[in-house]
Amino acid sequence: MNTDTAYFFQLIGGSTSDVLSSGPVNQAIRIFSDVIDDNIDLRNVFKIYLREPGKTYAYYDLIEEQEITQLTYKKYTLPLTNRLDANIINTDIQIDANSDGTADVGIYAGMTITVFPSSVTIGTSTTPFSISIDANGGTINQVYTFIQWALRQSVNIDNGPSSSLLGLIAEEMVLFNGSKLRTLRNNIGGVVINNIATSEFNKIEFTNDNGNIITYPFRTTIQLIFNEVLRNDVNSKYVLFFTNDDAGDNTSRDFGTSNAIVIRDVNNAEIRGTVSGTNVITVSYDYDGNIQRGNASAGVVVQYTAIAIGRTNAKYTISSGEIIRTDINTINLNSVLDVFRT
Predict the structure, then answer these.
(1) 136: buried, middle or exposed (CB in 10 Å: 19+, 13-18, 0-12)?
(2) What is the pLDDT of residues 222-249, one digit of tens each?
(3) What is the value of pTM for the model shown?
């Protein structure tokens, strides 16, 4: 904790107070006075927070943690520790340029936190959540940075229609579980993150209202890389096929036949199109959910055949291989010049 300053509150709906000194604290705090003075009774709530920019957070609910019915006149020990947080990737000013408690810079300007109980479908499972976070297409580190920033704001951070959620005293919503971002179930309920970058789907875990951990079906990113000949042919096209359906129904829908299957992405769009001068085209494939080859093929290694051809001078080219259960699969398509068309 060293030079960091903790803050606490003693009344639900009340304001927060900073401790009197930074670093280790030994401080008396008033909890009661009789009617002769100002008649206060703050013996039923004491929550203390340590939330510094760029560091991990600490929180202690004295009543709950020490199973106290009511505070009394004695010394209590409240452990709070923190450390540098390597998962924070931007400073406050890079999120909120004018420091008014509203994110207004870059991708953060579109991120929101909304308290609104709802049922959310993740893969084939529909499950209840009470807090929804819009990641605005950001990565897990970007949305984590946004949430941690929001939890230090002295304003309402709820984008919903009716709730009021003061950032400073809102319970934590996320943590890193190794390299994965996991949402938490707090006193409001479970937390879901929507609109996360598709490349991050394998890196996130959700805790729902029931305390269950939910994950997306595994997705892999497919990178189609085109050489200069294909890029320079303004009419060049590509298509990605399943080599066969042996892993599924095995009904001879093989590449080279009229029943060959074009692989579809997570949005059910066929992976085909024009190169249009692009070096790399990236698509997301539902590794655990795609059953184009038949129900038994979900989660099974994909034998693929990729083709590309230009209309002007790029020769027909073919590439085959496997799409495996890994975050990124790369497919190279290299054509040569058709000298008879140049």
Answers:
(1) buried
(2) 999 999 999 999 889 999 999 999 999 9
(3) 0.82
